[in-house]
Amino acid sequence: MTSARFYFLAAQILFAANHIIMAAAGTIAPSLSASHNLFASDIYQKIALKRSEENVVFSPASIQSCLALAFLGAEGETAQQMRHGLRLPVALEKTSIADDYAGFLQKNFRTGAGLTEDTPKLRMANRIYVNEALQLSPAFNNLAKTSFGSEALPTKFAESAKAADAINKWVANETENKIQNLLQPDAVNADTSAILVNAIYFKAKWLKPFSKFSTTEQEFRMGDGQTQMVPMMYADEHLKYGELTDLKAKALELPYKGSDLSMLILLPNKIDGLSALEKKLANVDFNQITERLQSHSVDVSLPKFRIEFNIDLKEPLQQLGMSNMFQDTANFNSLFVGGSRQKVNDVKHKAFLDVNEAGSEAAAATFMKMVPMSLNLDQKSFRADHPFVFAIRNKEAVYFVGHVAKL
User: What's this model's pTM, rounded to 2 decimal places?
Assistant: First the structure.
């Protein structure tokens, strides 16, 4: 059984990358939108809970998109496990799932005409690098091209350094050089049958930017009791806010300019409450949280932070019930002409996130805000000076999610 590889990526101020290498759970969502959000919750539980002492960021949308593309070439038990693990609607045929993905990509990922300086950049790209000795199934290739916009390129994997360089250059270009050298030359060889790459890139400005002149050095308290002085941003704005007694946490939504995208931040009440909060988030759709938030005047303190994160996704995916695709009994017979036997060897993900006052690299204007000198009884305080969860999302999907454990 020969080997095939698949790669994913993402970015934001956020970027991420994954790859699946192929060689020769839960309730099914009623809709693709529900599928995106439920899968994000599932995969978050498997990744974040074991890494409470380190910073985490990844893209559920990127991971699911790349695996969904591979699912189109799967059959039998492999396809059944992937459908359940990815929370894909059980009532939908593959062609309908592909059509729904096409609609999702067209609605939420914007490129080309109509974009302005203030419009968030959220784009996703797919590409399949195929061993020049093999040919993709016409049916699979058509679905990949029409629904996922995935281009298939014949590749000479025997020339490993050249092949890796070509893939890395494409990845760097799609993520505006935020992710480089994703693929090492020794990761491919003449037996590699395919590398499927998904890249997602996001960059946006806050709707209400923080003033750089309000940023000061303040303490960030880690769960283990240590403290670190960090640049802490500050703002006093009307924002969606909630005190969630069932989660023992506060929630704040920071919208991005020119879109329905926002960053949801969940701050546990206790300094060492990150793990307890994340356990309570099992099977929770973030939409259920944002629906509970109300507009308040909020004093916000949020640290500037940058996270780089790499992870092998093989174990988390197996824990979600997708084990057959890694075994010799894997069935991806619809992927290649002639039903070439393939299995997934590994799945990698790489992500990068940078959060600052502007939300992007745009300059922040100097301003002074004057208010009446009266007591505001409705004033809320959201001080993120200890570990917290964040998610960049809209109602359709979670594009990036993670937690800040230390700075």
Answer: 0.87
